[in-house]
Amino acid sequence: QVRLVESGGGLVQAGGSLRLSCAASRPIFSMPSMGWYRQAPGKTRELVAAITSGGSANYVDSVTGRFTISRDNAKNTVYLQMNSLQPEDTAVYFCKAQVLVGKLIDYWGQGTQVTVSS
Fold this sequence. Notes:
Elements: E1 4-7, E2 10-13, E3 18-24, E4 33-39, E5 46-52, E6 57-59, E7 67-72, E8 77-82, E9 91-101, E10 103-108, E11 112-117
Parallel strand pairs: 2-11
Antiparallel strand pairs: 1-3, 3-8, 4-5, 4-9, 5-6, 7-8, 9-10, 9-11
């Protein structure tokens, strides 16, 4: 079992920045992948960014060059630095951790609201 707690969301003007944090209840160094997803009202949840245990990251095209995902294994925390925020980035952002226990199991946080005003 892994508990994930997101923080750092809020209200920001277009062009501003926020940094989201996802703190895990157990060491993350062995987790194959951790990621950030978002869900806007009336839309399906989408992958925003993910990072492997080796540090390789991938991003959805709409955030490439603006968002950066990173992981601090010493703090059991994954971050999402979001710059040049736009109103279309408004959503609830969720953290997901993959744990390998014979098979891959996904754990989710409760989400944090990000609202970008124009």
